[in-house]
Amino acid sequence: MKPLVIAHRGDSRNAPENTLASFKRALEMGADGIELDVQLTKDGQLVVIHDERVDRTTDGIGFVKDFTLKELKRLDAGIKFDKKFAGERIPTLYEVFELIGHKNFIINIEIKSGVVLYPGIEEKLIKAIEDYDFEDRVVISSFNHYSLRDVKRMAPEFKIGLLYQCGLVEPWHMAIRMKAYSLHPFYFNIIPELVKGCKKNNIKLFPWTVDRKEDMEMMIKAGVDAIITDDPQTLINLLEKGE
């Protein structure tokens, strides 16, 4: 079975990451889903941005947590990527959900609650997902496994994915203990033992961030369930060629 194509922060090779423009491109090219990051504004709104600071991807300076939504919406989230994207804004999670609508599309939502802690973000995220009846299509991931534990306690039916970077010994046991749907390792960690252990215990594998063609081929051969990539078009072409 072919792995799912998950566009990392949208089509982030060709459009500013974590913007509606980037997500729209991923939808149109035929990706199976997107990966995005959520944080909270000063006034408690869920916004889609990766860094805890706005400096790298916008024309602003400062921490996301120190801006109200109205203030964040004044920032340009496109101009640093390319002038043709000038005027692109940081989207709210609700705006992304509106864009996707009821298309058969997977949304991997990473809770950014490590460097900056956002008390209550899990409850707000659960409500947003329930408001759109997206429970079946969303996988909530995080490097903060306490945050994922809280999600599971509040909404046992929700799918969670454990993000990690370094090699862990038999991590599927942790996934089973936390009732996780998936493991999301840095792709260097994909070894036969891990794939075998996950398949035996019905744990999905979503490696990240796989951008080189040879690494994509390696992940496909390994038998992972989804591939998170900054270059979804190359992966789509590769999978179509292999049919």
What is the beta-strand fraction? 15-25%
Q: What is the β-strand count?
A: 9
Backbone CA Rg:
17 Å
Supply the CATH architecture: Alpha-Beta Barrel
The end-to-end distance, rounded to whole angstroms, is 11 Å
Tell me about the largest β-sheet: 9 strands, mixed
Q: From the 3D structure, determine the CATH topology.
A: TIM Barrel
List the domain count as a whole number.
1
SSE string, helices as H and strands as E: EHEEHHEHEHEHEHEHEH
CATH class: Alpha Beta
Q: Give the averaged pLDDT, no decimals.
A: 98
Number of helices: 9
The CATH superfamily name is: Phosphatidylinositol (PI) phosphodiesterase
The chain-level structural class is: alpha/beta
Unreliable spans are none
Which features characterize this protein?
single chain; alpha/beta; TIM Barrel; 9-stranded mixed beta sheet; 9 helices; 9 strands
What is the secondary structure topology, with strand pairs?
Blueprint: E1 4-8, H1 20-29, E2 33-40, E3 46-48, H2 69-72, H3 93-100, E4 106-111, H4 121-131, E5 138-142, H5 145-154, E6 159-164, H6 172-177, E7 182-185, H7 192-200, E8 204-205, H8 213-222, E9 226-229, H9 232-241
Helix pairs in contact: 1-3
Q: What do you see in this structure?
A:
The chain is α/β, with parallel strands linked by helices and 243 residues long. It has one domain: Alpha-Beta Barrel (TIM Barrel). The protein is 32% helix and 18% strand. It contains 9 helices and 9 strands. Strands 1, 2, 3, 4, 5, 6, 7, 8 and 9 form a 9-stranded mixed sheet that branches. Helix 1 (20-29) runs parallel beside helix 3. It is globular and about 50 Å long. The mean pLDDT is 98. Residues 3-239 form the GP-PDE domain. Pfam families: GDPD.
